[in-house]
Amino acid sequence: MSPEMTAYLPLIVIGLVVLVLAVWLIARSGRKARLIDDESTTPLARDVLEDGAARAARNQALIDAPRAVEITQGDTSAAANSQAVAASPLGTDAEAGPDLAPAPPPAATGAPDDLTRIKGLGPKLSSLLGEFGITTFAQIAAWDQGEIERIDAKLGRFSGRITRDQWVEQAKLLAAGNEAAFVAQFGRNGQ
Fold it and tell me: Residue 28: phi, psi to the nearest 5?
């Protein structure tokens, strides 16, 4: 080593130590959780999920609260529908807006259809339509343009699928039991 380098070596070491210390202080100050000693019997650092910790009263009240309105699937009365709308937080159909009527109830005759047979309608959309009371091919086949727009507005990120994937045309063929025409026009599922 040269004598000049030896003279600067202690300064280089001190500079590195200061740099490491500065990085450590910056990293430590960026922590979000900090322990605060409040000098009470129960420290603030105690986890509320520990054994023996009390449940949050607000959350437990929401869990224990009775449902506002329960409508059975067979109940198609206007009184039941208006009661359900009145029980919503806004007094109207919260998602669709005040001028839209609630979805028609599922058909009382027969079991629900496997809506996932319609191309472009997967399990998530089938579940969502079930929440709206749509469970059969006949219900989808009977949609007019106004009903398509009303349901499409509720589909969120799936909006536009009804017309793009021709759900109504597919449902008409499936509701009629015309498998040959369905396969000829839309192909088999999974192909």
Answer: -70, -35
Predicted model pTM: 0.43
Q: Say what the pLDDT of residue 23 is.
A: 92
The model's pLDDT over 154-188, given as tens digits with 9 standing for 90+, comes to: 888 888 989 999 999 999 999 998 888 888 888 87
Query: 159 CB contacts (<8 Å, ≥6 apart)?
Result: 152, 153
* Cα–Cα distance, 85 to 69 (Å, whole number): 10
How far apart are alpha carbons 24 and 15 in whole angstroms?
14
| One-letter identity of residue 138 | A
Q: Which amino acid is it at 66?
A: P
Give alpha helix (H) positions in the chain: 3-29, 57-64, 78-87, 123-131, 137-141, 145-154, 161-164, 167-176, 179-186
Decide if 71 contacts 84 (C-beta within 8 A).
yes
Distance CA 95, CA 90 (A): 10
Look at residue 152 and give its three-state secondary structure: helix
Angle, alpha carbons 85-91-97 (nearest 5°)? 80
Rounded distance, CA 161 to CA 152, Å? 8
